[in-house]
Amino acid sequence: MTRKVLTRIARGAAMAVALAGASTAQVLPTAKTIASEMGVGWNLGNTMELIGVQPIPTKALFDSVKAAGFKTVRIPAAWDMHADKSTYVIDPAWMAQVKKVVDFAIAADLYVILNIHWDGGWVEGKIDSAATRPAMKAIMYAKQGAYWKQIATTFKDYDKRLLFASANEPGVDQQENLPVLMGLHRIFIDTVRATGGYNASRTLILPGPSTSFEHTADWITELPTDKIADRLMVEAHFYPYQFCLMSQPAYD
Q1: How many CA atoms within 13 Å lie on the side-chain side of 118?
Q2: Residue 224, phi then psi, degrees to nearest 5
Q3: Cα dist. 97→48, 93, 147, 178, 237 in Å?
Q4: Which of 46, 84, 170, 211 is the most exposed place for a label (fewest CB within 10 A)?
């Protein structure tokens, strides 16, 4: 075997090792590791789904959140309200606006949770109805796949500091309808993973039924299968009345 051939083989081997290293670099930490780093979080609220007006949160806002000691920010966002009603294609200008907000938070060194929020209610209050209406469920599933393919593709090169949440508060009043929600989550997981990049190992968040602590603990016995282990979180919501819901001051 000539020296020239041996040199080519060595170069090929070196390239293979380099590519393997690049592939390894794409693997993000486990959900448990990410959770341990996220600390206390702050929620942006409904800013990114106001109807008729779209104020853009500023970089100064996220810098102040970071300075206050928070490590994570949740950015709820609407998508259906900014998409073509027949093709489900999201308005590029809206995608760019959401990306700008996410970039502000990432630049402030915050972890970011980006979701599909209430968004006109196309998921929130329709799961129980969709369980007995195949056409409604088909539309819901089609939107979930279409929107998450576009969102995930846009953000696939973002590192571990970005997490996706499948929905917001997907209402499930009847336990027998839980499979509809799990089907929604299944589409979410498979769609995000298929876009590649960091999405192949990104931590994904699955809101429980109505994001109720009780329903989530009592009804969910298993999660949809993921292509990679230990990259899923389950989300439940709790609103302390005195801090979140009370409309008047309380006095002794």
Answers
A1: 8
A2: -60, 150
A3: 9, 6, 16, 34, 27
A4: 84
Longest dimension (CA), the chain: 92
Question: Which residue, among 96, 136, 145, has the nearest Cα to 116 in the 3D structure?
Answer: 145
Whole-number Å distance between alpha carbons of 213 and 92: 36
- CA-based nearest residue to 173, from 138, 207, 126: 126
SS3 of residue 77 by DSSP: strand
pLDDT tens string 4-37? 444 443 444 443 333 333 344 479 999 999 999 9
Cα–Cα distance, 89 to 92 (Å, whole number):
9
Q: How far is CA 155 from CA 15, 22, 116, 171, in A?
A: 28, 18, 14, 27
The tens digit of pLDDT for each residue in 147-177 reads 999 999 999 999 999 999 999 999 999 999 9
CA angle 213, 146, 82 (to 5 degrees): 85
* Predicted TM-score of the model (pTM): 0.88
Amino acid at 122: W
